[in-house]
Write a structure and sequence with these properties.
mainly alpha, 6 helices, about 190 residues, single chain
Amino acid sequence: MTLRPFTLAPHVTLAEHLPVDHRLSQVYRFGAGLMGLALIVFGVLGLIDWESFFGAEGNPALGLSTNGALSVLSIAVGLLLGYGAVRGGNFASVLNTVLGVAFVLSGFVNLALLETRFNVLAFGISNVIFSFVYGLVLAVFGMYGRVSSKLPYDNPYHRARHPDRVAYEERRRAELRRQRLAVLPRRDVPPR
């Protein structure tokens, strides 16, 4: 029995098959670390003065409503993002993107649950807006340099996705270099 990597869609896998670009890894690390730190601070402030774990009426923390469950969940996700910041590379990029999408979806779900007895995370409208904005920013940190219609030729993700274009571009650049060298006067031959 062969194990295949987890797939979200037929052509999208979470395996680390894409190349690592160390310059972009810094963006993924910074995004995961900054966003994770914000969640940890929010979670800790929420745990300082909470009345009930699953109460629909939350206490304010940083302008958002929170209860014990949301605080613990925020700290857990913040620590996961912190791990992504430490690990870096494609893992941090995928983690940022997946969690960013999850935050946006969470915003929609919790928007539907406002003012109901199923609002176990004590979400308010400010939490919903925060969830949308936070999710979009986190997803942008994850997709930075990976998703675009005009990635540069030397971008490692462009090179991995379009090997035929890369081969053509390398042949074209080599030909241009050869033509430039043919036009330049040779300096190793003494003039007559």
